[in-house]
Every structure is written in structure tokens, then in C-alpha cells.
Give the backbone structure.
Amino acid sequence: MNNGLVVQESVCLRELNTLRVGVTARFYTKVRTLGQLRQALTWARERNLETLVLGGGSNLVFAEDVNALVIHLAIVGRCWRDVQDSQATLVLGAGENWHEAVLYASGAGYRGIENLALIPGTAGAAPVQNIGAYGVELSDTLLSVTALDTETLEPVVLASNQCDFAYRDSLFKRQPGRYIILEIALLLSRSRPLALGYGDLKQYFSGRQVSRSLTPADVAQGVMAIRRRKLPDPAQLPNAGSFFKNPVVTDQTWERLNRDYPEMVAYPADHSVKLAAAWLIDQCGWKGYRNGKVGVHNRQALVLVNHGDGSGRDILALARRIRADVEERFGITLEMEPRVVPASLGL
Ligand code: EPU
């Protein structure tokens, strides 16, 4: 006990990561306030210990026991700011559950994040990989991030354009450890058009007769139905979502690939083409593969699953085999999406 900070020793992290990998943290603390977070960082520094900040644990692969102080960030709270006729800012504490925040905002009639329903994890983790789904990315509505600068232990406010957002990428991902996200502010609207262009979503709503105009809550429900059909619920079949990014290739590479594989699935991006990694993996025959402990989901080839007892190393060994197959067959190197801890054991 140290001014409200409770540090435990040898804590199993199985329930704190959605792959349900049962590694042990040397030290663990749950922080609910900025003061406790500062204390935790100081406590670790005094002992020359590394720290690892944990949110919902949905984008992490633990490859071995964690020789660090694991800081479980549970700073919660949500409020509206600058409410005007057609728009408002929703401020979310980093520890808020992302999906509940989506239901809350869309239920209140605000548009902007409804396509991001059912993404596991916390609001504070959302900017790190710039979460995205069904044609929408967090960066489309993110106004600013308030983060603790770990060099000065002072909070800083970073505007969206300072966060270097890109597809599944951000400043926070590129400089792990530099900032700890405390809260995020989203600019939501009551009037912007709903984003219904993504294939699955278009199909979902075209097959339904709706007598009134669609609301953001309807879209959130549609996204939830689609996700439940395709993606495994981590509570039932542990997983970390998409395991690889969709590779982005030049127009030239695409011309070659399209010539050799006319049926390859791809989408136009900025002066480039984004390939469907799930299709590449599927073509190599991995969908539904299982080697006892770990495997590939049988409805989405991009999702690796833990059937029970698999370790992070088992998952990574499988990911290496998949990556090698895709590389050999298509000449494309897949890039991993979740963070590996420690990074030195990553692909
Ligand atoms: N496909 C296959 N085999 C499969 C699955 C998909 O061939 O087993 C092909 C289909 O042709 C499909 C295409 O791949 O049309 C794309 O599949 P899907 O629409 O399921 O999307 P994705 O590109 O595999 C991305 C995100 C998901 C997000 C969905 C929906 C990445 C890395 N993943 O997946 O995000 O939910 O789009 O927008 O960009 C996550 O990041 O964890 C995640 C689940």
C-alpha cells in the first residue's frame, strides 16, 4: 500500500487478455486516477522496473511471463462537452469499455462511431491502433487525446492531426511507452450521413425493410449482427481480432497480382491497393486449421484462436507458418497487427 496504490506480486494475467494466455506479471496494479498512475510509474522507476500499461488486453500476445509492473488502467468516466444543435463532443476516460460507449452515443442519436460497435477493448486503447471497421476509423471522429507524457509525468493534449493516424497505426503505436492515454474526445454529429457503403453492411440493410430512416443505433445493431456471424466472441473462443494487417501494395504490384490471380480480393486505397489478408490466408488452406491448442477461425481466416491451453508462443509459431505460406505463394509479407510482449519475441 502506498497512498492508495496497491501493488500485487506474481499475478496471473489469463483473465486480462482476450487470447487467455496464462502468463504471470511480476508486479500488478490497477489504477483509477491520474495520481495513482503517477505513483505507479514512480514506484517502478525507483525499482528500475519496466512498466506495461494494460487496457482490455484485446490486442496483445503475451509470449512469456512479464518481468515488469503491469499497470491496469481503469480511469473511467464519460461526459458530453460543447453540446450544440447538431454536434457534441463525447469525452471518455481511457478505461471505459469501447463497445458500451458506442451503444451509449448511438443510443443518444449521435453518429460517427456506430460502425465500430462490438470491437473489444477500452476507449484508451482505441487510438493506439486507430481501430477501424465497416468503412470507418476512429480517426474520422477523434478530436483529441489527453495523455500522460511519461518523460515529464505531465498530461498533454494532442490534437488528432498530431497523432499521426494511419491504417491501424498511430504515434502511440510507433512510440510505445512514451504516452499513456488518459482520455479521448470524439466529435459526434446528429446529422452526418451514416456510412453504409461497406459490402457486408450494404447487403445487411438492403435485405431489410425499414419503414423509417435508419438511426445510428440501427447501424450499430447491424454491425453487431454481422460481427457475431463472422467473428468469434473472445469470451467463448479466445482471440485477438485480426492477427495481420491487410497489406497495402503499389499499383504496380497489384497489376502483377491481378494478372496472376484475377480473383484476388482487394480495395483501392490512396495511390495504392489494399489486399484482403483473410483471402490470402484462406487461399493457402488455413481457414479452420487446428493443431490441438491453437488454430485459425473457421469463418474468418484472419483471426487466430486459442482453443484452451495455447501459449503466446504457440500462437506466434502458427502465425509464422501462415506468414511463410502467404509469402511463398503470393510474394507478400504479412505484418502482424496485435502487439507482442516482449516485442523481441514478435514475428
Ligand atoms: N475473406 C476470405 N476468407 C475469409 C474471410 C474473408 O476470403 O476467411 C475475404 C472476403 O472476400 C471478404 C474480404 O476477405 O470480402 C474481407 O473480409 P472482411 O470483410 O471480413 O474484412 P477483413 O479485411 O478481413 C477488416 C478488419 C476487421 C474489421 C473488418 C470489417 C483489418 C486487419 N481487419 O477485416 O477488423 O472488422 O475489416 O470492416 O483491417 C480487427 O482489426 O481486429 C478487426 C476484426
Summary: The first strand starts at residue 7 and ends at 12. Residues 312-330 form the longest helix (19 residues). The chain has three domains: 8-73, 78-230, 239-345.
